[in-house]
């Protein structure tokens, strides 16, 4: 598995996370991803470990259900079950905008390069990809787009801001 | 007309480069067929029976002569010399090769056009009243709102992989010429005495397998908050719309299954959450867009013109065309001229490259450089001086574009059907042609008056048959093309869904059946009653009896 | 359109990826724009075998929309599709005889 930071266009500094089945024993070391069910059931032992614990959720998870854990986990991984299923974009948006989550959001699963820019602008910070070629395709895409209309969650200026020489309210305050 | 600035241009150019890249990834095997299908569709490219099809967006149906000339050029250079105007104010080319697609898109970009989001599971091209800016009774020009929504929905990061396609229409007159109640979201402009200008918002209308006349989800949304409200609706839909069954994935099913109240509550909650941080930049932008849609500088003319009156008296064919195809304009001395793309026995919506050039020339010389596409697959010259109407008509007539049949029996909407479409069960175009010929031969269209016949080649209902006064649906019965008849639908402000009459008809039988229905109407109508009024007064019984007997 | 099950008397059709043209699989695994050149399957197994070749071609990104089409032998001993939809694909739109593959024959007539 390869990793890519969508803003820095490299993955070298990103930690690999091991996906743990709900009944798999925890490893001695290394970062892990667990489901919401497991985190809820075993939170005390899990969070007492001194390695990073991330939460792995499907795109249809409700942001509000994750709220109690957001300041306790190292990262949220959103799994895209199918490339055409866009629920993960709304989940990322809500985690940032509704829940105020400031940590890393990593997308995993069935991703294609055509998602790249959309993921970044929905609040996703990194992706996990199957092979180096896919990483190249992602980077190419991210370099391709320099402009967008929507007020989205990264701080880069929108066309409306550029056109009217103003900063959007959300960033100004 | 809206002109792109460098930002709009850049977006379109970047998208073309992106599409080039996606084609390369497909050719080198890095995109699967299924993945590439979705990506090409997001860029307007379908694969039909004989070839690819490119659907070019005509946002809110507005074109200028430069753009229309370009469409003609594309038809000649990359296609087979014609194009097809659709029920969503777009134009389709039926024969382009994939290898030419990026070049065609470059050609379009040169005249501020694109094919972005004319297909795929995302927010589609926004449609609007084709008489915008010209209609006598409109509250305001709906196109600035449509352009604002076009920008907001273009390459939207969160809403580009929705459960299913999403269609938005904007209407600003009491008369609904945009079929707002049959859209995923229909926006009807209105004035509120306290809150000023805003919209009543219809959500969850649609055709397809399960047609719905959309309910009003909110009676009033102030115009400054409209994008925020759309965001709330779209987010709720993206999260909750069904993804297990493509036929149940439209927002109409979600609204129906949850109930309007429950869905509305969710949207209201999200709307309330978003409002405090909502920006006023869209309102600033709306003012900028509006300044580009200033109505042309009309000549100050008396409403009557002597030469025009004279021509009406001396040329019956012209007078007839004016009576049927020309409607009042808000500016004295001007008129709105409808150009029928339904010649008797022709293919509804098809137009040759030469005809496109002619329409463009007319717009440029005597039409304040504006052309509109309508959802009935016709064109409009929205601003013509009455004194120029005779010249316009003569030129149209020479080019086979002066059929006087607006909203008449032969002004038929038909989808491409089995002659082109991969999903079709039966052909639609030949049925339209035969019905049109039948009514033309009988020469009684004027007697019949307003009659909207709509034909779809399968249950996807691209031909709006559910909303036809007379609707025809093609089905496949053991390899035979058969046609079901529905009566009493309407796509206008009095929207309703047509009822199936009974067993279907074969290709010849369906034409006779339509004839029978019309005869029944003529026999039963009261003075000045339209077909739809008669049907609504009498119900289906007399029509069924005429069709099937009383057995 | 419902997908057919493999059976005897079928041919394989698809659309060429690069041009979009309707094409038909020949016995040697190449594609022809003429259904009369297509391989007519002799059994369900034969159809499956042809389908495998076609899918390999799809995997090489040469064609899209690979599917089976019912067909029979014409009087001249050549295969020809029987169902409406495939018949129209083999010829072109019935409402524009000047377009599609039928255009060439129409001119020759
Ligand atoms: C030829 C290729 C075409 C294909 C493959 C196609 C496919 C479809 C499908 C699958 C639907 C049903 C969508 C749903 O209910 O979720 C649909 C609906 C529709 N299509 Fe098409 N279509 C085609 C051409 C056209 C054309 C030429 C027009 C205009 C003349 C058109 C206009 C529409 C409209 C207005 C609807 C109804 C939207 C609604 O359900 O609310 N389509 N189309
Ligand atoms: S109604 Fe059916 S046949 Fe007609 S264009 Fe739509 S999908 Fe094709």
From TrEMBL, chain A:
InterPro entries: UCP030820. This is Oxidoreductase. It comes from the Bacteria.
UniProtKB/TrEMBL annotation, chain B:
Pfam families: NIR_SIR, NIR_SIR_ferr. It comes from the Bacteria. Residues 119-272, 412-546 form the Nitrite/sulphite reductase 4Fe-4S domain. Gene3D superfamilies: Sulfite Reductase Hemoprotein, domain 1, Sulfite Reductase Hemoprotein,Domain 2. Residues 52-111, 347-398 form the Nitrite/Sulfite reductase ferredoxin-like domain. Keywords: 4Fe-4S, Heme, Iron, Iron-sulfur, Metal-binding, Oxidoreductase. The keyword Heme applies. This is Sulfite reductase. It comes from Iodidimonas muriae.
TrEMBL record, chain C:
Pfam families: DUF2849. InterPro entries: DUF2849. This is DUF2849 domain-containing protein.
């Amino acid at each position: 598995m390869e990793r890519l930071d969508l803003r820095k266009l490299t993955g070298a500094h990103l930690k690999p996370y091991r996906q743990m089945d709900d009944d798999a024993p925890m490893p001695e070391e290394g970062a892990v991803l667990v489901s919401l069910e497991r985190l809820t059931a075993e939170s005390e032992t899990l969070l007492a470990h001194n390695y990073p614990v991330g939460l792995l959720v499907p795109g249809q998870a409700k942001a509000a259900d994750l709220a109690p854990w957001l300041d306790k986990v190292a990262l949220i991984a959103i799994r895209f079950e199918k490339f055409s299923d866009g629920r993960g974009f709304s989940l990322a948006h809500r985690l940032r905008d509704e829940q105020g989550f400031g940590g890393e959001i990593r997308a995993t699963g069935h991703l294609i390069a055509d998602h790249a820019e959309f993921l970044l602008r929905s609040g996703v910070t990194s992706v996990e990809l199957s092979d180096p070629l896919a990483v190249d395709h992602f980077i190419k895409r991210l370099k391709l787009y320099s402009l967008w209309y929507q007020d989205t969650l990264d701080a880069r200026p929108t066309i409306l801001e550029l056109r009217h020489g103003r900063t959007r309210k959300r960033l100004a305050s | 007309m809206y002109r792109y600035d460098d930002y709009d241009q850049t977006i379109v150019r970047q998208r073309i480069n992106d599409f080039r890249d996606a084609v390369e990834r497909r050719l080198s095997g890095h995109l699967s067929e299924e993945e590439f299908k979705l990506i090409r569709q997001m860029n307007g490219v379908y694969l039909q029976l004989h070839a690819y099809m490119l659907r070019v967006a005509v946002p809110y149906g507005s074109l200028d002569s430069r753009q229309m000339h370009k469409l003609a050029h594309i038809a000649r250079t990359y296609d087979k010399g014609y194009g097809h105007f659709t029920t969503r104010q777009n134009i389709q080319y039926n024969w382009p090769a994939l290898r030419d697609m990026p070049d065609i898109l470059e050609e379009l970009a040169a005249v501020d056009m694109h094919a972005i989001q004319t297909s795929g599971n995302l927010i589609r091209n926004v449609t609007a009243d084709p008489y915008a800016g010209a209609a006598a009774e409109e509250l305001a020009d709906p196109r600035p709102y449509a352009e604002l929504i076009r920008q907001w929905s273009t390459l939207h990061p969160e809403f580009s992989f929705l459960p299913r396609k999403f269609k938005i229409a904007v209407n600003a007159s009491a008369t609904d010429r945009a079929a707002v109640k049959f859209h995923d979201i229909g926006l009807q402009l209105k004035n509120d005495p306290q809150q000023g200008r805003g919209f009543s918002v219809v959500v969850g209308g649609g055709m397809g397998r399960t047609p719905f006349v959309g309910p009003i989800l909110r009676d009033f949304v102030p115009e400054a908050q409209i994008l925020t409200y759309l965001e709330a609706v779209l987010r709720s839909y993206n999260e909750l719309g069904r993804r297990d069954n493509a036929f149940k994935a439209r927002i109409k099913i979600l609204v129906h299954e949850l109930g309007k109240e429950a869905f509305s509550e969710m949207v209201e909650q999200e709307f309330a959450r978003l409002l405090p941080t909502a920006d006023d930049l869209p309102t600033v932008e709306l003012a900028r867009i509006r300044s580009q849609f200033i109505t042309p500088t009309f000549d100050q003319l008396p409403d009557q013109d002597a030469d025009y009156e004279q021509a009406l008296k001396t040329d019956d064919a012209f007078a007839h065309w004016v009576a049927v195809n020309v409607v009042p304009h808000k500016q004295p001395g001007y008129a709105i001229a409808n150009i029928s793309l339904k010649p008797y026995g022709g293919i509804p919506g098809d137009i040759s490259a030469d005809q496109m050039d002619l329409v463009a020339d007319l717009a440029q010389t005597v039409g304040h450089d504006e052309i509109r596409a309508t959802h009935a697959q016709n064109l409009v010259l929205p601003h013509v001086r009455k004194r120029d109407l005779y010249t316009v008509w003569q030129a149209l007539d020479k080019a086979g574009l002066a059929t006087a049949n607006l909203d008449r029996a032969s002004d038929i909407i038909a989808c491409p059907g089995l002659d082109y479409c991969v999903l079709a069960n039966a052909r639609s175009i030949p049925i339209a042609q035969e019905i049109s010929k039948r009514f033309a031969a009988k020469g009684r269209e004027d007697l019949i008056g307003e009659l909207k016949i709509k034909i779809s080649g399968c249950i996807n209902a691209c031909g709006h048959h559910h909303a036809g006064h007379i609707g025809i649906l093609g089905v496949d019965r053991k390899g035979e093309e058969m046609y079901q008849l529905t009566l009493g639908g309407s796509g206008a402000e009095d929207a309703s869904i047509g009822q199936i009459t009974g067993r279907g008809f074969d290709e010849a039988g369906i034409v006779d059946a339509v004839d029978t229905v019309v005869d029944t109407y003529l026999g039963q109508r009261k003075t000045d009653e339209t077909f739809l009024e008669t049907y609504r007064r009498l119900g289906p019984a007399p029509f069924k009896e005429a069709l099937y007997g009383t057995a | 359109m419902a997908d057919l099950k493999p059976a005897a008397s079928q041919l394989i059709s698809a659309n060429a990826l690069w041009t979009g043209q309707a094409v038909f699989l020949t016995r040697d695994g190449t594609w022809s724009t003429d259904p009369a050149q297509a391989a007519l399957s002799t059994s369900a197994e034969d159809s499956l075998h042809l389908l495998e070749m076609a899918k390999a071609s799809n995997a090489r990104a040469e064609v899209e929309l690979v599917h089976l089409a019912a067909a029979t032998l014409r009087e001249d001993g050549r295969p020809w599709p029987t169902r409406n939809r495939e018949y129209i694909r083999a010829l072109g739109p019935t409402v524009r005889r000047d377009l599609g593959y039928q255009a060439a024959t129409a001119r020759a007539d």
